[in-house]
Amino acid sequence: GKEAAMLAGLEMTREEYVAIMDADLQDPPELMQEMYRLIKEDKYDMVGTKRVDRQGEPLIRSWFSNMYYSVNNLISGTKLESGVRDYRLMTRQVVDAILSLPEKNRFSKGIFAWVGFDTYYLPYENRERLAGNTSWSFFSLFSYSLEGFISFSETPLDIASFLGLITFFFALIGGLYIVIKTVVWGNPTPGWPSLAVIILAIGGLQLLSIGILGKYIGKMFVETKDRPHFIIKEQSKEKN
Predict the structure, then answer these.
(1) Where are the domains of the chain?
(2) What's in the keyword line of the UniProt record (predicted)?
């Protein structure tokens, strides 16, 4: 797939500057000159591109894409520019940093942002591909977006734990109300509210347990990725 192709290309390069672009010419090749100038003159380490519009794209797909970036930036510490493309020019140092991440399930948009470095996003107007049709269906894009969420955020696991805790709390309140109503006020309660409270309490505990278990699995997931703790851009040669 696309991720494997990009990784293979990056691993084969040895040059000082490396570019990634699609072959369908939706990525304007004429931007490469400006990207090179920004790196050479303005001293950026990476110049990416982002679309300022989504011309030729179905409205529903555009809406989901914008929603994805909004949700990602809300729950993930790795922020992504809306409309960002894989089309970019990078220095050798950036490429080496990207290749230092040994993970198998790769989400390159997140990786490009995660490694940091001074980055500039060059805006351009979207244009339709000159030939062929996209191989990305709605479901493949949905699966790819889930990969991005899972790779760079543990917030969904926190949400599960939080919902479980809230559910169990309301079950306790409901159970306490039934006890007070029956014992203090002497008003017998039908069987179904008690059963509903018990089911709610058990469900809340299960959801909380799943969230806690998920956090442990999430920590194992982070360890197996074996990402470096830090990436050094430059180091002083002076010795104290």
Answers:
(1) 2-137, 154-225
(2) Membrane, Transferase, Transmembrane, Transmembrane helix
